[in-house]
What does this fold into?
Amino acid sequence: MGEFLTIPEIIRTAEEKLPREIWDFGSGGAETETTLRRNRAAMGQYALRPRVLVDVSQRDTSATVLGRRLSFPVMLAPVGLVTRFDPAGALAAARAAERMGTVSFVSTVAAPPIEEVAAGVSTPQVFQLYNYGDRDWVRSIVKRAERAGYFALCLTADIAVYGRRERDLHNRFFPRLLHGDRPNLVGAADSATLEGVYMARLTWEFLDWLRDVTSLPVILKGVMTPEDAERAVEHGVSAVYVSNHGGRQLDHAPGTLEVLPEIVQAVGGRAEVLVDGGFVRGTDVVKGLALGASAVLVGKLLAWGLAAGGEDGLVRALEILKTELDVAMALIGANRVADIGPQSIRPALPIEQGLY
It folds into this structure.
């Protein structure tokens, strides 16, 4: 995959290779796609502050998240139906993460089964949980994740109802009906699961119950307000994960980078803060870190990398992202990730922000 020298090349190749309905499924958003575009537009609200005459000859991009040392502060977000982008699915993503010295979040609605993904790599990953069954089923799959060696549990809370993703509707593509791509839902795929009843019932009491039934650190994904961030910390989460589901749930929501500073302030250092939503370039990563995130996660780039060249394509996308981060660090005078902070950015006049 060395022929790929830029991320736009990878994205264009993915679009050329994928069937239209799969490209739209992986790249689209809810309704008017305003939230999707705001994720990218928010990046343009900040400029990086270059610094000169700083010795940056010895740079270190590594970071630590939930006690795990990463080669750079980028992790792979949970992606459902990932086998539509590469037949190896979540296993390909986990292998790419391992090769790059980082971590993959393995989705409940991904394939192959979570045990097979864990057995295919030597480094622990994060299990992402959807509340797709009764509590006996939830307890069962959480225990499966513990036995398989996952080191943290990520509860996704922003899908009380399924967003209206109009690209999928126009294509008559209904991903929730594709049971063969979701082996982890065996035993839970009843009518209540398909109708989203369990997700709609999700409350803070469920989070408390979940923390009681697992020994794993719990990450809460889908937080977009400081009020919910504050409550999440009060309920004992180890990390608050700022996400609007890639713009695929609530239309006309803010971009994640817009709300990140107020959420970091609300958390007040009592938990780690993670963020996804529109992060495609190394300079995007710098902005997320400067605004207080411990790390950023990429989802669409994961799908595009796999579609462009399988596991090797995703590794190449991450290599380029890491290189871009390293270059940006040097030019803002940062030798370490810890050197990136509010002093690294400034407000900027927004410009028209493209997809990448």
